[in-house]
Every structure is written in C-alpha cells, then in structure tokens.
C-alpha cells in the first residue's frame, strides 16, 4: 500500500483483543471472576448469620432472673425524675411498709424471688460505708447535710422514713418508723452472707473507690465472689486497680466493651474488655448487638460477665415494673431484668 508520494506508508500491525477469560465460552460460571465476589459475600453472610442467629442457638435454658433496685421500696413515677429530685416526696400511695436500702427491704426482695439486690453506699465521716441512696440526708430524714458529714453512729440516729409522702405533704406515713434503720455495709454483708448484691458507689471520688477496696479486702473471699460494684469511672477504676478479681462496672468499662464487641463479635469472638464485668443494656439498644439475645447472653456468660436488661433508653432507674412491660423482654433472654417493683415482677417472671 502506498500513499500519494513515492514512499510507501507503513501500517501498524494490530493485535487481536485479549479474550475475557472470566466470561469465555465453556468456562464454568463458578470460576468466572464476576461471580467469585458474590459467592464469597454469600458465604461470609451465611457464616455471620449462623454464628449470630439466636434461633439456631438451641435451647437457651432458664428464663431471666430479677435484679431488685434498692430492694423492696416505695415506688414512684420515674418520668421527669432527675438527679436532684427528692423521690420520697413523690411516692405512690404505699402498698407495703418497706423502705429502700434497709435490711427488711433487702430481705423482702430476696423472699419475693430476686436473684440480686442493688444497694447504694456512701462513705461516712468515720470511714465506714452507709447504705443510703441520696448524697444528702435532707430528702428522706430530718437531718441536713451530706452523708460524709456524719459518722455511722450519727446516721443511725436519723429517721430514714421522715420525708416520705404521697399526698403532697398532707401525711407522712413512715415518719418516726425509720429511726436506726440506715444500715452500714458491714451489717448488710453480715445479714446476707451468701446472697448476690450489686453495690452502687454514688460518688465520683477515686478515694472512695480506694477506701471500698481497702474495706472489701478484709471481707471473706467467698463473700466477695457474689458481689458486683458499679459507679463513677474514677472510683471504679481505683477499685479495679486494687482488686482486679472483683466484678465491677462503670460507664467507661461498658462503653469500651460494647464498642469493641460491635467491631469484632460478628465473628463470634468476645473482646477482652467484656470479660468479668457486668453490662446494663437498655432495651432500645439491645437489638443492635451481635447475637442478641441468646447468643449474646451465652457469650457473656462464658466470659463471666453478667447481663442486665434495663427498660427504655437507660434513663433514670427505668425498670420493668408492670405486667405489660414484661412482654418487651425477648424470648430466650437469660440474663437479669432490672425492676423497681420486685414484689410484682418476680412472681410473674418465675411463671414464664
């Protein structure tokens, strides 16, 4: 071939296109590249589903147990309650004579069927631990000031039923009936030597965590095995450093555990951050957990971690406190259910 001139025009040789071997005729479909990724994706999805599916987990065993908040106590509407609300002034009309955080109230909770009773502690002026909910004594007693202002003996002289009213102050049904009823932690542990207790450190003072560790180190090891302590990040960190074998929980510990769990637990593995602790799981968040409810509870039990289901979004002391609320507890859940009304809830759960 020539152009218009005298010199021949070179024509570049063209190579035939390389055939696409992933779609070449005769190649098995399952070996074609465009299908391989889909196959791997399906296999991974199937594995994740099988590992985390509760209905494939088999019989989960016994149903949920009950965690009684403050023992048997006077109930109140938690809606709108904040940290500074005096709940003694908003109780429902009393249906029984028990007061929170007292020996009779704790005993009544276990008698009603509670597996665990939660109680609150504050350090006193003489270095003991008083079992009492409030930072200040003004709401429930005739006294004034913080628990730290008083020795344990002085707190014993106060009337813990003084401030309770259900009718806006028209009547005070427990006034004069609570003198001497604020127990020390020592008295509680002596009265309940084997029962499971959840101790709430109400302050955020690391020195209080250190003091509690000092005290618990003198308690029989077998007794300590049935205790869990939770509270502010700083006192719990101090407590954990001194007593690494004690089961503890704080917001920091729980957040660290659950974030790591969400990242890796699709494989069925449980991060070390979730070992030997306690988790309070709000029911609104629970369905987002890998393997909820059966697989999740099983995994935590295997690493010696207690799972507690709390109502709502985990706000102020929200619990499963009515028969209707129990319908929201998922089938197969085997952890603990938080309640403010153990006398009603425990019998209903035992019959499920």
Automatic annotation (TrEMBL):
One Pfam family it belongs to: GDPD
One of the GO BP terms on file: lipid metabolic process
Keyword Transmembrane recorded: yes
Molecular function via GO: phosphoric diester hydrolase activity
Transmembrane segments: 37-57
Region (Disordered): 1-25
Keywords attached to this entry: Membrane, Transmembrane, Transmembrane helix
The keyword Ligase is assigned to this record: no
Domain annotation GP-PDE: ranges: 87-352
InterPro entries for the chain: GP_PDE_dom, PLC-like_Pdiesterase_TIM-brl
Source organism, top-level taxon: Bacteria
PROSITE patterns per the UniProt record, alphabetical: GP_PDE
Descriptive protein name: Glycerophosphoryl diester phosphodiesterase
